[in-house]
Amino acid sequence: MPNIPLNIICPTCSKHGKIYVEDSLVKQNVRGITAINIVKNIICEHSFLVYVDKNYNVRDAVSFDFSVELPAIKMKPQNAPQIEFDIDIIKINLLPSFIVGVLKGIFYKSKILAVSDEDHLNFHYEAFFKQILGELFNIDLTFISRVEYVRNLKQFKHYLIFQRQELINDKDKILQPKNTKIESAIVEEFFKTPDNTSSIIILKNEIFKVHMLARSVIEYAKEQNLTRINAANLSEFLKNKHGVEINSSYMQFIVEVVNSYFSEEIEKKIKLVNSFIDLL
Ligand SMILES: [Zn+2]
After folding, report:
1. Which of 105, 176, 208, 238 could connect to 112 by a Cys-Cys bridge, CB 3.0–4.6 Å?
2. Angle (nearest 5°) at CA 220 between 215 and 225
3. What is the Cα–Cα distance from 213 to 184, expressed in whole angstroms?
4. Is 86 exposed, middle or buried (0-12, 13-18, 19+ CB in 10 A)?
5. pTM score
6. What separation in Å is there between the alpha carbon of 129 and the centre of ligand 1?
7. What is the rounded distance in angstroms from the CA atom of residue 181 to the CA atom of residue 177?
8. pLDDT (tens digit, 9 = 90+) per residue, 6-62?
9. Spacing of C-alpha 26 from chain mean position
10. In angstroms, rounded to a whole number, what is the distance separating the alpha carbons of residues 278 and 194?
């Protein structure tokens, strides 16, 4: 019986609302937090995820598109990674929206600042991001105390800044809810997977796929000598190379990663177009 009331707020339009959930839903998940799907027209016209802890506190809400699918590329089985931080600490303390923000920031090559007085936890946070991204993407993420931040305000004007994991500065407006669908889906996979080591492997695999597909898009653009790329042709190329269909929103996301993170490897920004008429 749905019986626990939760007060929730849409992360896109800030509309408030109340939902009722079954207590078994959250109780089953003894560690960490549970994601609950809020589909369109329950609170407002947006769909999103709310993350609830085992005491039924709403910890976070993340814009989410239930039609977004991550590419089902088969990955080679790996040995369990050497993990030098506490995954429970990550799952209990790091807000999903913060992880989404850091991923987006890294894919955009932003400098990221996290203002936090939780010195004892920063080690785990840094090790976590290094573990999931470190071999593939440069991480420009600095943890800093509040006192030090206030003392050096000017220096961080162009950073993507989070304070206690909440976004307080985003000059380039990269963290719009509509721009973070893929990152939200990746982070959801992490929180949804109950086994800690598996959840890290899944997260690493998803980030590996982003990197691998971005490399393939660069290869295609160079081969074709194109900056305007027909989406259907690119989709065909990726299917031949990786054996799976990549949907259009994911392909658009990869092109954005190429244009921002790998901008030095392409001559001009790539534009994805849908028909031959657009190509002219
Ligand atoms: Zn809304």
Report:
1. 105
2. 125
3. 18
4. middle
5. 0.92
6. 30
7. 7
8. 999 999 999 999 999 887 777 776 667 889 999 999 999 999 999 998 888 999 999
9. 23
10. 45
Torsion sign (Cα): 200, 71, 210, 156: negative
19 Cα–ligand 1 center, Å = 14
Using the structure block, give the residue that is written with the tokens 């949804």. 192
What are the phi and psi torsion angles at 40 (to 5°)? -55, 150
- Rounded to the nearest angstrom, the distance between the alpha carbon of 4 and the centre of ligand 1 is 22
Residue 263 CA, ligand 1 centroid: distance in Å: 33
Contact, 177 vs 37, CB < 8 A? no
Report how far residue 166's alpha carbon sits from residue 168's, in angstroms, rounded to the nearest whole number: 6
Between CA 81 and CA 202 the distance in angstroms is: 11
* Mean of all residue pLDDT scores within the chain: 91
pLDDT of residue 79: 78
Proportion of the chain in helix, strand, coil states, percent, rounded to 5: 45, 20, 35
State residue 31's pLDDT score. Answer: 66
